[in-house]
Specification:
about 425 residues, Immunoglobulin-like, 3 domains, six-stranded mixed β-sheet, binds copper (II) ion
């Protein structure tokens, strides 16, 4: 600890002295050529280089399992760094054209499956392909997403309590990284991750019994886990209770996620992953279904009851999930089925790696914004639109024109 600090300080002092001396000599001698001929100048240039390398060396003497100081905050203590190794980045740019370009990475929120059917042997089989692709976060902003089945979030899965499920994971041959799957609906080590570590081109399968009903996150748990999650590797699996869930008119699939990109918000082009921002927990983009929405994709009618399966792929932010202009009639807190329900709730807390089921009836037509009510995140992309059509319902919601008799009456009474 002390050696590190001493070396750092010596490096800084030598560096400052050398820079001052070089600057002073340069100022004294306008002729550049004679400047470089002076021997003592070369000595101080050498000292500057020495200070630079001493600083780098000082970093290496730091105990790796020590708490992170401010000036080293991009390094994980002791474990795998969150950053992608330089070799992989180099490989990515070398083979950039090999990566599939996905036109729309955002999972369709209306794509909620029916209960999965079992094969003749009574086992339900799912298979995922993990693939690293290039897609837009927002028009003109490209990111190297890591996916389950080329979409973010990965496909929603739906089984029933007590079902036997077989899960296969194939890692696409073009992948640069290993991947796996950890389903929170699984009881067993790693939620299946330890049984599904797949190299590019490899397939692994495991079987589990869905013991508990609930809405669960699944995600890639390959170290560095937060790096894989923040590239888009997450989704939801619903385990319905034996008696099933109540009937509703429409169901939607919405998962919040974070994207840590280099440079400023809105920077165009292929934006690299920023591991320092990941460790700081400051994403450039917060999304519903993988990317910033460009047009409303959820539609419903007045009089209908909707259910939203809401997840949070994280990895850092707790979501205050709210639908502007609606009150949730029922919330299954933390996606728990069989536990206490909430009624007449304004916002559902959706934990990172957690979920919530919300239900509400639509009474008034219009556009309803889904947001994370930590509203600065709206500026980072955390919004989506539910468009409701149908007859106006003036009993519940109606405009009052200025100067109308009602307005006048009110003024007379209250002023
Ligand atoms: Cu992964």
């Amino acid at each position: 600890m002390l050696i590190y600090l001493i070396l750092e300080m010596v490096s800084v002092i030598i560096g400052i002295i050398a820079i001052i001396f070089i600057a002073f000599q340069f100022y004294k001698l306008p002729n550049t050529l004679s400047f470089f001929k002076r021997r003592n100048i070369l000595f101080f240039v050498a000292a500057l280089f020495f200070a630079f390398f001493l600083g780098i060396f000082a970093d290496k003497t730091y105990p790796p399992n020590f708490a992170m100081p401010a000036f080293m905050h991009s390094h994980a203590p002791g474990g795998l760094p969150a950053s992608i190794p330089f070799g992989k980045i180099f490989e990515f740019f070398r083979y950039q054209n090999r990566f599939e370009k996905v036109a729309d990475i955002g999972a369709d929120p209306t794509n909620v499956p029916e209960l999965a059917a079992a094969d003749a042997d009574g086992i339900i089989r799912f298979s995922f392909v993990t693939q690293e692709v290039i897609a837009e976060i927002s028009p003109g902003i490209y990111f190297n997403y890591w996916t389950f089945n080329n979409q973010v979030p990965g496909p929603m899965l739906r089984v029933k309590e007590g079902d036997m499920v077989e899960m296969s994971v194939t890692n696409h041959p073009s992948s640069l990284h290993m991947h796996n799957i950890d389903l929170h609906a699984v009881t067993g080590p790693g939620g299946g991750a330890v049984l599904t570590n797949v190299n590019p081109g490899e397939t692994k399968t495991f079987r589990f019994k869905a013991l508990n009903p609930g809405l669960f996150i699944y995600h890639c748990a390959m170290p560095n886990v937060s790096t894989h999650n923040s590239h888009g590797q997450y989704g939801l699996i619903l385990v319905e209770p034996k008696e099933g869930l109540s009937k509703v008119d429409r169901e939607f699939y919405v998962v919040q996620g974070e994207l840590y990109t280099d440079g400023e918000l809105g920077k165009k082009g292929l934006v690299p992953f920023d591991s320092e921002a990941l460790l700081d927990g400051i994403p450039n983009y917060v999304t519903f279904n993988g990317r910033v929405e460009t047009a409303p994709r959820m539609k419903a009618k007045v009089g209908e009851t909707v259910r939203m399966y809401v997840g949070n792929g994280g990895v850092n932010l707790i979501s205050s999930f709210h639908v502007i202009g609606e009150i949730f009639d029922t919330v299954y807190p933390n996606g728990s089925i069989g536990g206490a329900l909430e009624h007449n709730t304004q916002a559902a807390q959706v934990l990172p790696g957690g979920s919530s089921i919300i239900e509400f009836k639509l009474d008034v037509p219009g556009k309803y914004l889904l947001v994370d009510h930590a509203l600065a995140r709206m500026n980072k992309g955390a919004w989506a639109v539910l468009e409701v059509t149908g007859e106006d319902n003036p009993e519940i919601f109606t405009p009052i024109k200025n100067g109308s008799s009602v307005e006048k009456e009110k003024r007379e009474i209250y002023h």
